[in-house]
Amino acid sequence: GTNEFCRTKIGIGRPRYNEAIEDFVLDPFYDDQQSTITEALHIAVKAIESFVLYGVEAAMNTFNSLTTRKKLRKKEVKR
How far apart are CA 47 and CA 56, in angstroms? Predict the structure, then answer.
């Protein structure tokens, strides 16, 4: 990695079936993860909007908070 540019990381789970972390990160999502990835992408879009409007530090402080992520998940479920 590098600190030359900002990036968004989206995590939705852990490796299964004793697979290597490298394979897990680079392989396509499992079929049963589709609703989770959809939810994660909605949150990622909000985080990127926050980054563009308010800067990286404000976005990180907001979206790296477990409390914020839980609130956003509840809102997405209601949609």
Answer: 9
Whole-angstrom distance, CA of residue 29 vs CA of residue 24:
8
pTM of the predicted model as reported, rounded to 2 decimal places: 0.68
CA 68 to chain centre: 12
Contact 51, 74 (CB under 8 A): no
Chain position carrying tokens 């209601």: 78
- Residue found by looking up tokens 């959809």 in the block: 38
Q: State pLDDT tens for residues 38-71.
A: 888 988 999 999 999 999 999 999 888 877 777 7
Give me the helices (H) in the chain, please.
21-26, 34-54, 56-63, 66-78
